[in-house]
């Protein structure tokens, strides 16, 4: 049996606090085991000049850690559950969801507004948050306020708030994160459900590992908190049904209570327009002790998407309780879609608020530099972004609304190593960006599908979206 483990974590102070908390619990349970924490930086940590919803990725704070899991560099990863997409790579699973801390959002005020509430701030006061969910709800509740983006780790945000020359009258953050940082004394107001419903999974930690590693799944299963587990499965399935991500203005509130000997889970969900003027809000209740409640011939527990969460059972709950929670989330999501949520979400997506605005500079400085790639050029073709990189490296991407194709440039020996020539292929000219110092000529452009390895020629780009999942990478 394995007794030594490598634990992945983001490098931020909050992430390390959370990871150390998990490791301390495991050490208490297994004092003979050893745990090494491996820190990493993620895309969300690196892109600080763009609002989170506009980066256009669903794995902003998890992808690099998951990549390390997939190649066995680490054994498991600690996340804030709200950062985890509702669909993980099939090789990975959420093996533990820990007891939820306060799921509410909280307001930290600039010192000059100490003692204020959001309702009493002067008109036009600027409130820092990057969350479309918070902005939509609070615009509806407090129309006299202005909401502006704020990025960086929590220490950076607090410095921005306290800067006498800064623009922020207040910041809105997750109460759980503020508490873990030891800053509860800075909280000036908690936002109740009537003001701002929380994000899916907010306040809970999740531990992710390989889905086939039963030994680690069993180890991490000792950390699972039953009530939080069931509530978060319902919340995640609700979000999954709406096909939303952490950037979409979708909010929830859940509560599991023992009533007359029955475990009853109430899930409330909402979808908001960006300006807060339109919303769809509804709730459903399920009795986890009643085999018939919510179950229909079309929607049986065995076919419900568990949103990549390992199935657990606990004393006092029926074996199918997890599936019933997932069904609750699915039913509520479908109900909101029928009531008009689909149209609201379509408006949000078409507005560009959650569309990628990455430019060549961002791509070059973030992804390509990390992989020791040089961006030779970009070209737009039928609404698709095509990147030409050199030398050849694997570059894994998740599928965006429109396929982003990563092309590789085949280097060849050149009599003039200081030049990089354009390629004319099918009347498409791929020009290198200025200042390229790769010292290699671009002589051929090809693209490949990550999943099936098929070589896709330039002439067949129109069919690219039909190839497996449409995720494209050099081999």
UniProtKB/TrEMBL annotation:
Q: Any one Gene Ontology biological process term?
A: protoporphyrinogen IX biosynthetic process
The record's Gene Ontology cellular component field reads:
cytoplasm
Q: What are the Porphobilinogen deaminase C-terminal domain coordinates in residue numbering?
A: 230-288
Q: Name one GO molecular function term.
A: hydroxymethylbilane synthase activity
Q: In which pathway does it act?
A: Porphyrin-containing compound metabolism; protoporphyrin-IX biosynthesis; coproporphyrinogen-III from 5-aminolevulinate: step 2/4
Transferase among the record's keywords?
yes
Q: What class of enzyme is it?
A: transferase
* CDD domains reported in the protein's UniProt record: PBP2_HuPBGD_like
In this protein, which residues make up the domain named Porphobilinogen deaminase N-terminal? 6-217
**InterPro entries this protein is in?**
HemC (IPR000860), Porphobilin_deaminase_cofac_BS (IPR022419), Porphobilin_deaminase_N (IPR022417), Porphobilinogen_deaminase_C (IPR022418)
Say if the entry is tagged with keyword Cytoplasm: no
| Listed EC numbers | 2.5.1.61
Q: Which UniProt keywords apply?
A: Porphyrin biosynthesis, Transferase
| Cofactors (names) | dipyrromethane
* UniProt cross-references to PROSITE patterns, sorted A to Z: PORPHOBILINOGEN_DEAM
User: Which family does the record assign?
Assistant: Belongs to the HMBS family.
Put simply, this protein is called hydroxymethylbilane synthase
The organism is: Allacma fusca
């Amino acid at each position: 049996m394995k007794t030594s483990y490598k634990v992945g974590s983001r490098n931020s102070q909050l992430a390390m606090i959370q990871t150390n908390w998990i490791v301390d619990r495991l050490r208490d349970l297994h004092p003979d085991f050893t745990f090494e924490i491996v820190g990493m930086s993620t895309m969300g940590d690196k892109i600080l000049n763009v609002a989170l919803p506009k980066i256009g990725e669903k794995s902003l704070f998890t992808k690099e850690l998951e990549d390390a899991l997939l190649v066995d560099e680490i054994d498991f990863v600690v996340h804030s559950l709200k950062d985890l997409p509702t669909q993980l790579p099939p090789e990975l699973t959420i093996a533990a969801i820990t007891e939820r801390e306060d799921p509410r959002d909280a307001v930290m005020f600039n010192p000059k507004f100490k003692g204020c509430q959001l309702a009493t701030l002067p008109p036009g006061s600027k409130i820092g948050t990057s969350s479309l969910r918070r902005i939509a709800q609070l615009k509806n509740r407090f129309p006299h306020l202005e909401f502006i983006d704020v990025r960086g780790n929590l220490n950076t945000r607090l410095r921005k708030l306290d800067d006498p020359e800064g623009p922020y009258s207040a910041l809105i953050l997750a109460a759980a994160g503020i508490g873990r940082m030891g800053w509860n004394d800075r909280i000036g107001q908690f936002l109740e459900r009537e003001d701002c419903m929380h994000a899916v999974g907010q306040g809970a930690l999740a531990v992710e590992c390989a889905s086939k590693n039963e030994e680690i799944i069993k180890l991490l299963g000792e950390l699972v908190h039953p009530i939080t587990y069931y509530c978060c499965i319902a919340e995640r399935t609700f979000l999954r049904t709406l096909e939303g991500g952490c950037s979409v203005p979708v909010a929830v509130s859940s509560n599991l209570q023992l009533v007359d000997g029955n475990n009853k889970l109430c899930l409330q969900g909402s979808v908001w327009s960006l300006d807060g003027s339109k919303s769809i809000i509804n709730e459903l209740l399920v009795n986890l002790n009643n085999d018939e409640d919510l179950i229909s011939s079309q929607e049986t527990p065995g076919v419900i998407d568990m949103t990549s969460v390992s199935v657990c059972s606990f004393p006092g709950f029926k074996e199918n309780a997890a599936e019933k929670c997932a069904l609750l989330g699915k039913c509520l999501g479908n109900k909101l879609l029928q009531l008009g949520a689909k149209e609201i979400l379509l408006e949000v997506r078409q507005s560009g608020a959650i569309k990628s605005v990455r430019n060549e500079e961002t791509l070059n400085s973030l992804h390509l530099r990390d992989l020791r790639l040089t961006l030779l050029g970009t070209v737009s073709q039928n609404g698709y972004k095509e990147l030409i990189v050199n030398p050849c490296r694997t570059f894994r991407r998740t599928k965006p609304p429109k396929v982003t194709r990563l092309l590789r440039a085949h280097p060849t020996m050149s009599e003039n190593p200081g030049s990089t020539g354009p390629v004319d292929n099918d009347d498409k000219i791929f020009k290198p960006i200025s200042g390229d110092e790769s010292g290699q000529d671009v002589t051929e452009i090809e693209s490949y599908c990550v999943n099936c390895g098929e070589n896709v020629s330039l002439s067949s780009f129109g069919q690219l979206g039909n190839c497996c999942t449409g995720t494209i990478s050099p081999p």
